[in-house]
Design brief:
Elements: E1 5-7, H1 8-15, H2 19-28, E2 34-36, E3 39-43, H3 44-51, E4 68-75, H4 80-100, E5 105-112, E6 117-125, H5 126-141
Helix pairs in contact: 1-2, 4-5
Length: 143
């Protein structure tokens, strides 16, 4: 904000109050404000007088872009032994990622014996999901 005049909305945000509450304070005379057109402006000194302390500027939250990935992989014509080998290898890799704690990754596996199909559900940050998918490619290309 960086000003010495605040709008009713800014004061409400600073004090974590509803805008109507701040307007009521102004109407009741609890908070001194100047009317400019149809809007009120509150001086920093008047707000500090109400609070009994200096007004601190709100800290800005810096956000960084985050990419989440979710994918389902179906691998057909897989024997129970092959499915177990693939699932165990991928789960081990996912667990290694979890130990580092740097990137999020979740892996769920399910084997359908009737259809001889292994289903993988992979969710998380882009890099570890890509690594899991590369491992899936390696498992499925091997004889």
């Amino acid at each position: 904000m960086g000003t010495d005049l605040f709008s009713v909305e800014q004061v409400a945000e600073l004090l974590n109050l509803h805008v109507r509450t701040v307007r009521a304070y102004v109407r009741e005379g609890r908070l001194k404000a100047t009317r400019i057109g149809k809007q009120y402006r509150i001086a920093r000194a008047d707000l500090e007088a109400l609070l009994g302390r200096p007004v601190s500027e709100p800290t800005t939250v810096s956000r960084t872009r985050h990419v989440d990935v979710s994918t389902i992989v179906d691998i057909d014509v897989v024997s129970p032994d092959q499915a177990m080998r693939i699932a165990n290898g991928l789960v081990a890799a996912a667990n290694m990622n979890a130990r580092t704690g740097q990137e999020r990754l979740r892996l769920d596996t399910s084997y359908d014996e009737e259809r001889a199909r292994l289903k993988l559900v992979v969710m998380g940050d882009l890099a570890p999901v890509m690594a899991i998918l590369e491992m899936v490619a390696q498992y499925t290309e091997a004889p």
